[in-house]
């Protein structure tokens, strides 16, 4: 079903509570597995009375990834959006603008998610009186690199936001009220050769500077796929990218 | 090439440090490692001359509160479900130790705040130096600052090493000076913490331009993050010459940083043309990138000229028969670059002359053993000096300069107006003094000896050399310096060139 915008596709699911914005570029089959994983999350959420739609934002996708996205037509709860930003930050913003849910969850098109991710994140976010951003508590790496790490939010007694000077305190997987993303859009990254990168790190800093707390949802896990080639984070690391100026550092 | 013994001991030290010493308190580490460093410097001066005890102190952060060291069962169950139904390649390494995301640790935050607050006035130019001590490059910093102030620019100087800066008091009025060496000395260079501090401060404060003169930390920041920094800030660097190790292999800041940084630099300033030509030949860096900006010589000082013109002892001096021996002056930094071994040989080979040696060890870790010089009966070690002109009361026959490598030594600009100079044809020296009257190589003892004795025997020759030197100084006036500097693109300001543009 074509929407009025011309490049939105997908069955009308009514107005969901949550829109999961998934960006895709050259993931190919990995994207399908990611969507299948998110479908589990959606099913668990619907069981808990939370309506979810998944918006796949294809940004200048290659042929394989385009076919995967096309095959998602008619997939329950999935809509698609085609853009040509060639920029992860701008692609996410485009998806957020089209998100129908009051809440938005940000996902990458090659990662996998624990089934309870949306339910637990919604519960955590709703437990706070003020707008907040919720991240998975546990991140497990697989693929070209194995490992895991715990994310500790600002609720942790020893969290020190000055750490953002050297590290990205949270990964890109985030759940928050849509207004948080609208008020604080992701910055364009620009080409890796320009020296700037890590749009999620920058976004984390900007939202922290705005007073929005970053928290974690207990017992949630994201499985992050580490690739041998084609990784944006590796490309940025190769170019020694740093994050753009941020209000967080003016106020640090 | 590192010695095997040094490599082994260095590895052993790192293992012991990681496993044991880093667990001690910073104070305990400082006490212990100061002693270790002192021993190591004596045993391996070539390898660790730059090391300072501050940089060896490790603060071992604790894992954030609540971080578990195993993957819980519920996560493993999720992984198994996903592996069965979604992605069979999802393999979880249950034996792995967790990465620790140090959200409870912020190294360098205080240093960053200090630098950010100091640079927040949005300077037109920020010069990054290791320190400000007596020296040619340091004098160059003063020249650049005076020029920028004369052009109405807002200027700051940032010293990045944990060392004193006695020449900070010589900065012209209006130049702000900041020392961050102590603040960043304890940061982990391996993890890039010092450069993160400098990079972030530059990105947030966006000075119009920076000029790197010897600051390793600033070079490191540009090397890694120059593309980002250059989007809002023009980047200049001064390089004067290569240094060389004991095997004659070029080392130093140009070797370490110029290839990786060149594409981010607006210009490289040098006081000579010799080394830029070498760097072009070595790395193919565009010649247009290099700008020769000769430093100005000191203005003539009538009182000094009078002293210099006084008759000198010797066969043709008025004081002949007075019993006074002719004197030779040597002045400069007492380090291996200046080849004190050659100085010793010259003093032995010219026993009929008294040698007055002025200078001090300036660069930490680069000092030399002065004992052999002190033993020579015709040598007097005079100590440090603050103004070259004050030395000329000694009524010297000539100024003898020894150096294995050099740009264009400032001390020659100081001496050229008053004393005939005997020097080797190295680096940029032939750009000041005619090559045919220079000693062909630093190791040419007979060449030095012959030149000194000729000057001693021939008053007209001394006068001829002196006049030639004074003519050469016409290229080293303040006006010429400003003209050269003005030709460096954007040095005195470039309008909107290089300003950061919003993207997206």
Poorly predicted tracts of residues of chain A: 1-6
How would a textbook summarize the main sheet of chain A? Answer: 10 strands, mixed
Coarse shape of chain B: elongated
Largest interface: A-B, 52 and 57 residues
Give the uncertain stretches of chain B in residue-range form: 315-321, 496-504
Instruction: Please give the number of β-strands of chain B.
Output: 14
Q: Largest beta sheet of chain B: what is the strand line-up?
A: 3-2-1-4-5-8-9
Our Rg estimate of chain A from Cα atoms comes to 17 Å
Strand residues, percent of chain A: 25-35%
How many strands in all of chain A? 10
Helix percentage of chain A = 25-40%
- Terminal CA distance of chain B: 49 Å
Structural class of chain A: alpha/beta
Q: How much helicity do the residues of chain B have?
A: 25-40%
Element order of chain A: H for helix, E for strand: EEHEHEHEEHEEEHHEHH
The share of residues in extended strands of chain B comes to 5-15%
- Cα shape of chain A: globular
Mean pLDDT of chain A: 91
Oligomer: heterodimer
SS-derived structural category of chain B: alpha/beta
